[in-house]
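Per-record layout

source: Trichoderma gamsii
name: Zn(2)-C6 fungal-type domain-containing protein
length: 503
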Amino acid sequence: MDTASESRIIIPRIKPSCTQCQRSKKRCDRGKPHCSACVRYGRECVYLLRDDSMSVSSVETASLSPAKAPQDSEESPHAVFFLDSVLFRRSMNRLPELELSFKDPLLNFIGDFTSDRDFVHLYFSTLHPSIPFLSKKKFMERILNPLSPPRPASLLLIATMKLLADQRPEQGPRCKAYYSIKSSLLEAESSRSLELRVLQAIILMAVFEVGHAIYPAAYLTVGYCVRYGSALGLHKAVERYSEEGFSVTESEERRRSWWVILVLDRYMNLGCADRAFLTADPSKNSILPIDDAIWEENKEMNAPVRRLFEPPTTAMGRFSLTAQSAILLGNVFRSIHEPPFSEAFWQNDVKVLDSTLVALTSVSLEEGRHRGIGVCSPSTICYSGRLLLHDRERYAVDEFPFAATENFLPQDFKRDIAAGMLRLANAILSSGCCTTDEITPFCVEAIYRGAVFYGREHSRTGNLSDAAACATIKEALNEIGKRWRAATLYAQMIDARIVTGIL
């Protein structure tokens, strides 16, 4: 490099600039610089000396920064994934895998899962039958395989499974393990990774928080599931049998994961029906989960494809019925929120929806008897849906004036539902009849509503048998509370209703 060129780089060049528009400046006839923008708008140029060496220096420093380029490189696949999906699919088509280092508290909680697998057996024998969205065969072969080192996403899934399987945590639900997993899930999000196993861990965390009434965390975690699942494209898995790039088994697992999210999203709003659920209803042609027995045997290729428009049968399996009950629950929410065209139209719509809930309940109860299931989540969700549909207090009086009349709808079914919940309570309290392991978080709300019914009847008539029924159900809720803390809270709310007279 010659001396002249070297001096041009080192010696700063001073240029006048216009502070009105910060543009570079031509020379006018009088030798003063001016800019075209100021001339166009009739402004007088105001000059300021600018040191180009500063801008050159900053640009050179930024371009030579060793940390900036790798950071941009790491973020580009994730940014392209969201900003231009076509470009991503045709050029990259795969996001980087999760890279995460776990802290000692979480690693100590997980332990040596290759030798100590009691929690795995406990999870698959208790919670899994009612929410079977994990492929047990793939889990055992790939995640628990001692020949392959566990990936971070797999460890997160294992940790949440163990948290759910621990039925009596010494420190309560908000234990150190709970906060360690929540922290690791946040770090996984910060790592810019999107993986199905991470989503499944978040789903299990949502089930844990719903079951133990950890609010508002449960509500926010379910919303996180919706967004994460949508980013992975799981909402499309319910619309097609086989997805490009995925085997039949993988598509079924993705499909089931989305159905669990949809069920959680609907169930979350039972206590406060004014909240809008986040997931859109699948189309009538959407594919339901295959029969659970076929899923457990890993024979997806031979399973008949069931679609949402088909009438429910026991051959569909419990989880498929659970998915359908969630769809009907969503219809109930719409029925109590969307103002009808007329009273006659609304009455007919409610009667049709009620009949559909009754039909699905009957199939679910038959499914339970056929497969030896003490209590089925589809039945209790349908019970909750019917009670919500016929609850006058849930309707806005100004939009549904006819809902407040005495001839609203026949109320006899409420006693039938309450009687069913009383029988379930007696079975739970009777040794060996129905264990709390068979109760899922999706069952507890209907049990609570049964107790409220008996409490209201006792307040109205003074009948001692109603008071005894209410006390029995409350006792059963406290027993369930040893497994799911939400049930204990429901029992406390029964006491609050009775003391305050809010029945």
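summary: The longest strand covers residues 14-18. The two ends are 91 Å apart (CA to CA).
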